[in-house]
Design brief:
Elements lengths: L1 E8 L19 H10 L11 E4 L3 H14 L3 E3 L16 H17 L14 H18 L4 E6 L1 H12 L16 E7 L5 E6 L3
Parallel strand pairs: 1-4, 2-3, 2-4
Antiparallel strand pairs: 1-5, 5-6
Helix pairs in contact: 4-5
């Protein structure tokens, strides 16, 4: 029995702004186009058995449109929301870096060792735990099928870390640009494996 999960990051939404779990910025026109272009190479798209997504609009709007077009079941899972950045949500990164640049860089170097520097921000180990629960649940629910997960860069990095087992200090070495498409396959009860990861240029 083979289970296939395609992973798609959302496209452009409010560029230059801190978008975490609570900022519900919609996709820009460019964002819609990026996501549509990313899926052009998957034929036929209707081979999916269903779509699961973060409830954030930048993921859910595209997932809903895709599901409607192909008659696919759609499920939202709040555990696939982006990492929470507390008081920083919705602020331009250019405003955040002058006062918090070094703590933020420390966090990016190894989120398992440095707390989320955003006031009221979600701690990374808590974030990874909720994503892991959602991911394991998706693998179980999709057993033997082919599903699409539409989510965020942080979520997809956490999923890839769970699949590949690399240390948290290498997390931001994985490029996950807008509309990045990846595929994970699990054969029977064996370990999941990454089949491809289109990081883009």
């Amino acid at each position: 029995m083979t289970t296939t999960i395609d992973l798609l990051r959302h496209g452009e939404a409010a560029p230059g702004r801190c978008l975490g779990s609570d900022d519900d910025a919609p996709l820009t026109e460019a964002g819609w186009a990026q996501m549509a272009a990313a899926l052009e190479g998957l034929s036929p798209a209707c081979a999916w058995d269903g779509v699961v997504c973060s409830p954030s609009r930048r993921c859910a709007d595209f997932a809903a449109a895709l599901g409607h077009r192909h008659g696919l079941p759609l499920r939202q899972d709040g555990r696939f929301r982006e990492l929470g950045f507390g008081a920083w949500e919705g602020r331009p990164w250019a405003d955040v870096y002058p006062s918090a640049g070094e703590p933020l860089l420390d966090f990016q170097r190894d989120p398992s060792r440095f707390d989320n520097p955003a006031p009221g921000g979600e701690q990374y180990p808590d974030f990874e735990r909720r994503v892991a629960l959602a991911w394991d649940g998706l693998l179980d629910a999709a057993a033997g099928g082919h599903w699409l997960l539409v989510a965020h860069a942080g979520v997809l990095r956490a999923v890839l870390r769970r699949v590949l087992g690399f240390p948290a200090g290498r997390l931001f070495s994985v490029q996950v640009p807008y509309a990045c498409l990846s595929r994970v396959v699990q054969e029977g009860g064996g370990p999941a494996r990454l089949v491809f990861h289109r990081g883009g240029l």
